[in-house]
């Protein structure tokens, strides 16, 4: 069996051939083929000695009319496209020696030249079942590497073998060793063979393990720097920037852009501090940040000058200080890096390489910063609501937003939209194989439309207002580059670097409130520029991105005058009027700002940058007219573009695209705004004062992003966000739903559900919209697919509409508001069911019932006690029995019944105005009880009163810090809420838990129990028929369309949404029959089979009452299962 040593030797032999030596092309091709054959032997479990490479290459299979793509065969008069396996096998391995470079489009095209089993996996039935599974080996002419590729429905996964095999590559090959062993293989093995190949080349696990190693070392470095006396935020910023710079240098070294004689990435026995001082500082500051002509005499004159700002020394780099690095920090970090292969070419959803690519930088730093904990134990992710968007979703959103923009700009003339769709949707392989694709995009109108399309792409303005680590700007950059390459052919490919430069300067803009996010976004852009340079001699100074990605608060507009609430109007025309109202001097200054921004993009040298930036800030102050009493002037004076990503400057407290970018309208606003509740933000009052129509004090920050984004759109622009979907159905989403219905045309709304982010269980939606007004959502779909690879096709096949109605009401005026009721996505059969329920039923909120929360004590450890503790307190003071009652928690509630857990609650409700001194045993328990040792927070015995105070104060006792309950007007011994409805606890009632996977409503007919905070209770008339309806499968289904989920398979059965259920009650004999079924169901003495029979009978009664058809009943049955 081939060993890794033999495979490595073959790779070494292959690497010795000079790619510029065309005389020995045949020898080089044979050496490459030997590597491919040995990999195949490893998969087959065969010995390399048993394989004759020359014989293996004799099965030439043709180039499908693309002979010019391949080098000539050393032995045959044919292109080097050979099948390495015998016919009739369930797999086919092909070796191809490329004439040019291994660009993604060419690899994709070559893979698709022949049919394979996996090409049919996306079809309802696999029409390609007769073909073998494909394994492809490529030898590019311009690199000493072998690329292994497997495909799935047009998508590719690849692994590049080059130089020394990485440990990751060895693990993958070891996993696949023997997969293709010939003994007993049949066509039935095709699914298994393909699944093993496809899963083995999944980059997700590689990325995960790489990140985990980075995270460990990041945390060690932060802790070490903090221990040396530095602030934690400064330490995180230093650690993030250092690791980012090192990774950037690692990528540069992968491209061959670092002087090998300097051995920058070798520690050479130096301790960590010495290595940083002698090698990394020399690389970062004296070399990459210094033009060659300005370097010291003993400087490195080989490694290129990069510019851009990434390697500028900042105060947060702790200059003139010896950094307290952990022992062997760099040795350990580099050992971790060497476990993996690196590539400067970013993967896309349809082409993934098993290697660490620049996109991984974004994931690393977004995750590192998000997982850092504060003193309360909360992570930054919890506080800031930041989640990394999967690349498939980024790709889909970029493509759909650009599609709508091109539709709008190019119009709807004959075949225009069809041509745009071909431009955006044709796979790389199809495009590459179709030499006439560009000339036939718009049929006979191509000559007219094509230059207009190029002009439209040149003019598009794209903004990500929550840029994170740059996923969406990079996604849009890749898409624009792809479109230009398709529309302009070889010219665009030849000018790739300049094209990227123009796109960055003119088309793409980003904002984020987090300084480190802005730094990482810039870093990713710079890496994307480097990848376009083929040799060290081609590397040019990188652009400065200070006016491309800014650190600012996207939701806060620039004030017009004195007050922070005096902001620029939301209406586009009014906004433009404000700009037109600038006096002549101000207009001239604005023009000068534009010239400074343009010059600054390309300028090099610290003095030149400083001069331009100083002039920029001088002009900003002039435009504020020096009146520091005005909010506008205060905002402008706080904007320092060059310093805004350093910890001492922070973010600008506003965002104004005209001042910061020289752009006042965008054609595409796209991104993933933060998912954070406004009421949990320290500066929530700032947003309350800005007069957003979508604002709700219990809502989420992303709702304001929708409104601000819509304000900034051009007349033909589109907005595309992925956010939490809670606004669609929750009460706090009324304002946003109303605003969108009145001001936007929602083109597509996709409810993705939960689990789409690896780092979060949040339920999400994608919404694409433009300015305007429509009668409803044009395309809406609940996405239930397992994979995110083909969202577009799923939408096309399953989309429905959401008509806007006026069932919702303005909470201030009680007037009906169009589109304010929950936005529910329903299929035709679901819409029919809903219509029948609405017609037959009455909303629960309109029945004679009353719903309230259970008891919120604010500290359950003190107020909820065991039976033993209850008995002890009553024995010590019999009066204690007056204020201790059995309690039901959400977890205790089942369908129709409950399981009492022998727990009790102390009912010291503020509304009842108890005197605690009448209950000395309870008072002593609250003050001196050992409950203070329980729960997530503990404190010394005797601190009960301090813990129970309702002041929100912080305390310290015996070295232990703890907080009292949140501030209210209640007494220290009382529950957190007043509980003015405490009499309801003694009445017959329906009880249910707020969070549950199924409908679980219990009946407390004797009024014996007090529900706690995780439950709700309902009192009133007709409780038994309501109980039966709520526990039915129909109600369970209907509520699933109204309620919000937790993201973990459970639904929130909250008061607001449950009140929207239409309840169909019975009359006469039907009522008595139904009540009899409910009473029987409440009988605990029945068997499980009897209970199921009763449930079925109840469901049938309800279905008959509202007139469900058999197909509709079958749908409910399938849903329940």
Automatic annotation (TrEMBL):
Its EC number is 2.1.1.72. GO terms for molecular function: DNA binding; site-specific DNA-methyltransferase (adenine-specific) activity. Keywords: DNA-binding, Methyltransferase, Restriction system, S-adenosyl-L-methionine, Transferase. Coiled coil: none annotated. PROSITE patterns: N6_MTASE. GO terms for biological process: DNA restriction-modification system; methylation. Pfam families: Eco57I, TaqI_C. It catalyses: a 2'-deoxyadenosine in DNA + S-adenosyl-L-methionine = an N(6)-methyl-2'-deoxyadenosine in DNA + S-adenosyl-L-homocysteine + H(+). It comes from the Bacteria. Residues 507-753 form the Type II methyltransferase M.TaqI-like domain. InterPro entries: DNA_methylase_N6_adenine_CS, MethylTrfase_TaqI-like_dom, N4_N6_ade-DNA_methylase, SAM-dependent_MTases_sf, TaqI_C. Residues 886-1063 form the TaqI-like C-terminal specificity domain. This is site-specific DNA-methyltransferase (adenine-specific). It comes from Bifidobacterium samirii.
């Amino acid at each position: 069996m081939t060993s890794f040593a033999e495979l490595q030797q073959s790779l070494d032999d292959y690497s010795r051939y000079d790619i510029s030596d065309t005389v020995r092309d045949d020898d080089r091709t044979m050496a490459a083929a030997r590597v491919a054959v040995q990999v195949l032997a490893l998969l087959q479990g065969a010995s390399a000695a048993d394989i004759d490479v020359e014989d293996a290459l004799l099965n030439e299979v043709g180039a499908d009319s693309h002979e010019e793509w391949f080098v000539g065969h050393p032995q045959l008069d044919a292109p080097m496209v050979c099948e390495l396996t015998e016919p009739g096998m369930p797999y086919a391995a092909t070796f191809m020696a490329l004439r040019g470079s291994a660009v993604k489009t060419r690899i994709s095209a070559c893979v698709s030249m022949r049919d394979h089993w996996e090409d049919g996996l996306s079809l309802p039935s696999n029409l390609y079942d007769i073909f073998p599974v494909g394994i492809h080996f490529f030898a590019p002419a311009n690199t000493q590497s072998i690329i292994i590729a497997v495909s799935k429905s047009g998508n590719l996964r690849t692994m590049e073998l080059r130089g020394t095999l990485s440990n990751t590559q060895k693990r993958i090959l070891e996993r696949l060793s023997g997969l293709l062993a010939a003994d007993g293989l049949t066509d039935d093995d095709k699914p298994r063979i393909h699944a093993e190949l496809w899963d083995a080349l999944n980059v997700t696990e590689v990325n995960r393990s790489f990140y985990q190693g980075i995270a460990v070392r990041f945390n060690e470095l932060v802790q070490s720097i903090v221990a040396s006396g530095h602030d934690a935020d400064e330490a995180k910023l230093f650690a993030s920037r250092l690791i980012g710079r090192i990774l950037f240098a690692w990528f540069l070294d992968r491209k061959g852009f670092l002087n090998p004689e300097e051995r920058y990435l070798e520690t050479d026995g130096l301790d960590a501090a010495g290595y940083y001082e002698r090698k990394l500082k020399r690389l970062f500051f004296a070399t990459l940040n210094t033009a060659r002509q300005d370097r010291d005499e003993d400087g490195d004159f080989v490694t290129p000058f990069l510019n851009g700002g990434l390697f500028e020394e900042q105060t947060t780099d702790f200059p003139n200080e010896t950094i307290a690095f952990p022992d062997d920090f760099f040795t350990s970090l580099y050992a971790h890096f060497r476990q993996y292969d690196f590539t400067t070419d970013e993967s896309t959803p349809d082409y993934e390489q098993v290697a660490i690519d620049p996109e991984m930088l974004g994931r690393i730093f977004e995750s590192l910063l998000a997982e850092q904990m504060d003193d309360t134990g909360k992570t930054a992710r919890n506080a800031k609501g930041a989640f990394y968007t999967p690349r498939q979703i980024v790709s889909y959103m970029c493509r759909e937003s650009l599609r709508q923009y091109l539709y709008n700009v190019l119009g709807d003339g004959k075949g225009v939209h069809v041509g745009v769709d071909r431009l955006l949707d044709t796979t790389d392989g199809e495009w590459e194989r179709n030499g006439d694709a560009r000339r036939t995009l718009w049929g006979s109108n191509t000559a007219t439309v094509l230059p207009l399309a190029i002009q439209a792409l040149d003019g598009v303005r794209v903004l990500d207002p929550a840029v994170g680590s740059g996923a969406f700007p990079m996604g849009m950059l890749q898409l624009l580059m792809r479109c230009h390459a398709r529309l302009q052919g070889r010219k665009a490919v030849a000018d790739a670097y300049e094209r990227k430069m123009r796109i960055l300067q003119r088309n793409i803009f980003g904002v984020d409130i987090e300084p480190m996010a802005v730094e990482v976004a810039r870093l990713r852009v710079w890496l994307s520029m480097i990848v376009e340079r083929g040799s060290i001699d081609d590397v040019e100074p990188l652009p400065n991105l200070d006016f491309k990605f800014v650190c600012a608060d996207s939701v806060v507009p620039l004030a017009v005058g004195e007050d922070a609430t005096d902001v620029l109007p939301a209406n586009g025309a009014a906004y433009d009027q404000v700009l037109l109202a600038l006096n002549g001097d101000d207009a001239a200054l604005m023009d000068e700002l534009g010239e400074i921004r343009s010059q600054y993009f390309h300028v090099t040298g610290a003095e030149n940058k400083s001069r331009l930036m100083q002039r920029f800030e001088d002009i900003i102050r002039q435009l504020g007219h020096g009146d520091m009493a005005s909010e506008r002037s205060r905002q402008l004076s706080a904007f320092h573009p060059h310093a805004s990503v350093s910890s001492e400057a922070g973010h600008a407290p506003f965002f104004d695209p005209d001042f910061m970018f020289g752009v006042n309208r965008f054609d595409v606003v796209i991104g993933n705004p933060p998912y954070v509740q406004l009421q949990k933000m320290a500066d929530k009052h700032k947003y309350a004062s800005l007069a957003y129509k979508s604002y709700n004090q219990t809502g989420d920050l992303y709702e304001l992003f929708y409104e601000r984004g819509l304000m900034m759109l051009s007349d033909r622009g589109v907005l595309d966000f992925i956010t939490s979907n809670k606004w669609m159905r929750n009460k706090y989403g009324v304002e946003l739903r109303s605003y969108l219905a009145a001001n936007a045309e929602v083109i597509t709304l996709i409810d993705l559900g939960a689990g789409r982010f690896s780092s979060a269980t949040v339920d999400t939606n994608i919404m694409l919209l433009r300015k305007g007004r429509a009668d409803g959502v044009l395309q809406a779909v609940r996405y239930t697919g397992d994979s995110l690879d083909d969202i577009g096709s799923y939408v096309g096949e399953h989309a429905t509409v959401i008509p806007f109605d006026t069932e919702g009401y303005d909470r201030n005026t009680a007037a009906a508001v169009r589109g304010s009721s929950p936005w529910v996505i329903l299929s035709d059969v679901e819409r029919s069911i809903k219509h029948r329920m609405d017609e037959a039923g009455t909303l629960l909120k309109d029945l004679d019932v009353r719903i309230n929360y259970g008891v919120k004590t604010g500290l359950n450890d003190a107020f909820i006690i065991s039976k033993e503790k209850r008995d002890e307190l009553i024995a010590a003071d019999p009066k204690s029995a007056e204020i201790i009652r059995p309690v039901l928690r959400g977890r205790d509630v089942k369908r129709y019944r409950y399981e009492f857990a022998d727990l009790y609650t102390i009912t010291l409700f503020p509304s009842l105005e108890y005197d605690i001194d009448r209950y000395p045993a309870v008072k002593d328990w609250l003050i001196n009880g050992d409950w203070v040792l329980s729960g997530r927070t503990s404190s010394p015995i005797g601190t009960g009163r301090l813990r129970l105070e309702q002041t929100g104060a912080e305390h310290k006792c015996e070295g232990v810090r703890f907080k009292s309950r949140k501030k209210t007007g209640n007494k220290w011994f009382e529950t957190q809420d007043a509980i003015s409805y405490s009499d309801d606890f003694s009445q017959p009632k329906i009880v249910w838990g707020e969070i549950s996977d199924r409908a679980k409503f219990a009946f407390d007919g004797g009024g014996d129990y007090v529900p706690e905070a995780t439950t709700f209770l309902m009192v009133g008339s007709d409780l038994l028929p309501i109980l039966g309806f709520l526990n039915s499968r129909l109600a369970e289904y209907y509520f699933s369309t109204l309620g919000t989920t937790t993201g973990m398979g459970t639904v929130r059965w909250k008061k607001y949404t449950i009140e929207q259920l239409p309840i169909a009650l019975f009359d006469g004999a039907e009522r008595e029959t139904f009540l009899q079924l409910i009473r029987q169901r409440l009988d605990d003495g029945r068997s499980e089979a009897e209970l199921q029979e009763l449930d079925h009978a109840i469901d049938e009664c309800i279905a008959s009452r509202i007139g469900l058809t058999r197909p509709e009943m079958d749908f409910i049955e399938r849903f329940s299962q």
